Amino acid sequence: MRAILIAIVALALLFGCTGSNVTQEQYDTLSTSCAKAKSDSAAALARETAKANAATAQVSACTQEKQAVQSSLLATEQENAALQEKADVLDAAQAKTYKAAQYKLALEYYLDAFGPGKIPNTARLKKIDEQIAVVGDATLAGLISNVNNCQGIVGCSDAKAAVQPYIEAQQQKLMLEAAAIVGAGQQ
């Protein structure tokens, strides 16, 4: 702003707008003053341009860093999604194998009460009933009920003979389902 005022005064003096003649000494002083103001303005402009360039470089660096972080975050999210899918597959397979293990335990309890040479007692029957509740299989509960309420040698023999194959078939079915889940999850 000061440089502009000096320039206007210099022009006025140069062109005689003030109505007086300018001496060479006055002209030289004014010229030196204008040159200094021009130099100072150029230096100030250079400093501000350097600051603006530095700020632009920082913004560019931040933008690149932000893009790199976003790319890394996206890659991590995709990796997490893939891992979550695998975890879901393993959870589903684990649920099947857990249920198969519960059937196996029910069979152990059944054979402990009704196997060859075994005599069912209240404690053994209670363990079977509790395990049937854990398994949650209405068909198996019905088969055990048939064993508990059977009449006659043939009727009891037939009722007892139906339980073990059913439990083993359920175990095998669950293990095949678990294997299929894992196999499908690996594709």
If you had to describe this structure to a student in words, what would you say it looks like?
The chain has 187 residues and is mostly helical. The chain has a domain of 103 residues. The protein contains five helices and no strands. Helix 1 packs antiparallel against helix 2 and helix 3 packs antiparallel against helix 4.
Query: How far apart lie the N and C ends?
Result: 74 Å
For the secondary structure, the number of strands is 0
Secondary-structure content class: mainly alpha
State Rg: 47 Å
Overall shape: it is rod-shaped
Give the assembly state of these chains: single chain
Strand content: under 5%
Task: Report mean pLDDT, rounded to a whole number.
Answer: 86
Largest sheet: none
Poorly predicted regions = none
Helix content: over 70%
What is the helix tally? 5
Order of helices and strands: HHHHH
What topology does this entry show?
Layout: H1 2-14, H2 24-114, H3 122-135, H4 138-148, H5 153-185
Helix pairs in contact: 1-2, 2-3, 2-5, 3-4, 4-5
Which structural traits does this protein have?
about 190 residues; single chain; 5 helices; mainly alpha
Summarize the structure.
The chain is mainly alpha-helical and 187 residues long. It has 5 helices and no strands. Helix 2 (24-114) runs antiparallel to helix 5 (153-185).
